[in-house]
Amino acid sequence: MKATVCDLSIRRFKSFHIQLMKIHTSHRLYSLLILGAVSVFTAVVSAEVKLPNVIGSDMVLQRDLPVPIWGWAEAGEKVTVSFGGQTKSTEAGDDGKWMVKLDSLKSNAKAANLTVKGSNEIILENILVGEVWICSGQSNMEWALRSSMNAKEEVAAADHPQIRLFNVPGHTTSPLPKEKGAGSWQVCNPKSATGFSAVGYFFGRRLQKDLGVPVGLVGSNWGGTRIEPWTTLAGFESVPELSKIADQVKNYKADTKVGGGSPSAIYNSMVHPLAPFAMRGGIWYQGESNGGEGVTYYHKKHALVNGWRKVFQNKDLAFYWVQLANFRKENENPAGGDGWAKIREAQTQALDIPGTGMAVITDIGAANDIHPRNKQDVGWRLAQWALHQTYGKKNVVPAGPLFKSQKVEGDSIRLSFNYVGKGLMVGKKTGLEPTMEVKAGKLSHFAIAGEDKKWFWAEATIDGETVVVKSSDVPKPVAVRYGYTMNPAKANLYNKEGIPASPFRTDGW
Fold it and tell me: In what order do the strands lie in the sheet with 424-428?
């Protein structure tokens, strides 16, 4: 019996359907195989032990402190770290994070390897043990060696295999703390040093020379930034006066839009990924962008230091900052108080934080340039603090004269100072030359006032370890101001170590 047209159509339809099902089944199986392979590959990749960028070849590990080594692996995976005769093991947590702490290490200028083993093995090479410092702030800390005074000669001479440099690249922010960041360690040579922080380099160069141990420098900077973006949430929370800022940061979510001026945003992206890398301390050159502040900056400095000490797990983390340099046109009004006078005062008052210090540079600024090229003296003066206070070299005078007290004596006021050193002097600083004593010189930029709060330029003379200030216009003086202005260019009180006195005032008006 012949098939009808309808029967043929039905048979052809069934045959086509069967072939289609075979193709579909085959494609689905192929897809499943591919997905399975991808899953296996992903599992293998995720199981690999990984390290943050700040832990890498060519680094310097901090001596005489526990040294955290941390990273990521598969949950539950055993991780073993070996270095300097020590072997430490742990297991990655449910979140894949792991950390071990090496026992205190002795300084070692001989290169060694560090090994991390899990499902894979990582060997880090050319590692030294010495002193590690973070160098942070805005443009005057970011200012590169190649742009400093005597740049050509300085860059050419920057061949120091015992100094290692880690620079956090770019300018980035995040609303929440980031675990991973960019950067890599490099041996200090003309190529790697040319773009590194000049202040950081000169600071580290002196430490390495004077201490005779390897030095690691971590640079994290962003020109034009305020102090708030560099401060941690915990830092803000530690200072009651900053509770509103703390509340703001606490409300950040992953999708909160933040920028270079947002509290904690730079810290979250450019400092947090470094923590808790073991470090001895930090140097800080910032304040121009907060230049209109006074006591508020004092509170923020406390928050910055408190927060960093907590995140780097070092309550004794040394912290030395640079007081702002002289800048802009001189003010002829003896009352002063203009421009950066109050923020310099706040920077000085913040020395009540234990383990801190301040480099005074009101003698090396430039009236027409917010970026003084003399970074050599800045690094040297910061190193004075570190050598004296952190490394116990008591023969090193850490600073120039800092106002301690006043005593009214009839028509005069006698001023006493800390850090007199070998004595007080009238000094003159020119370029990179050492400060010279002006034997027949007179002290300048002292002002005096009575209870009427009217200020007059005063005559000031050195008397032993004190300075006596008076004016015929003020028969009954009650207060003195010194260099209390945006550009105290004529201020010339030094100790005989050649370090300038900090500007100050004895009144609270």
Answer: 436-437, 424-428, 493-495
